[in-house]
Amino acid sequence: MPKEIKIVLKKNSEDGESNMLLADLLKKVLAMNDQVIKLIREKTIPGPKGPKGDSITGPQGDSIEGPPGPQGDKPIAGEDYSIPKDGKDGKDGESIKGDKGDTGKDAEDGSPDTPKQIITKLNTLEEQINVKSVRGLSEIITGLRRAIQSVRSFKGGGGMGDPVHQTFSGNGSLTSFTLSNNVAANGKAAWVYVNGQFQVNTTHWSISGKTLTLTFTPTSSETIDITYIRT
Question: What's the number of domains the chain is made of?
Fold first, then answer.
């Protein structure tokens, strides 16, 4: 606090009027001094802190999605990407799936008849059958002609005997079968069939004495038929 200033005026002053004016001036100065001190205090001493104001959040803006871009070109193998190679060191390589193939046509149904049933039906026909229409028939006729020629040229002690027919069953291991008689024409006067299919001499079979030997092994489901002329 500023010290109080006392003004003492002398009555015997030669210039009384001047002293009075000076005293009034000092009073005004002191009065102004109090106002200045009050003003300084108000400016320098902080007042209590006011309440915190509320924050205001503005609304979120809308997102705008642009239009989709154009579709890219189909990649080309070997240009846009490398062709996978075969795997190495036990690792499988990547597989490339090719285009689907065309669907095949359905096959026509075959005949349900067995070879023996077909032969039976052929024997019931009255009209002539073309040799080329029956597979193997031409070979049969050729073999028959050769056998006849061989029989004609065969010179044996007791002449030619009657035809004999025998049947054998395969078992998946046998290739030789024993006949009941020797075969004329040095083992060539014979006609051999396996499941109804004609077998060609020297190509599929041969005969030595009473032994018929096949060049293949018939299975257990195959039947061997032989018709020969015995000696």
Answer: 1
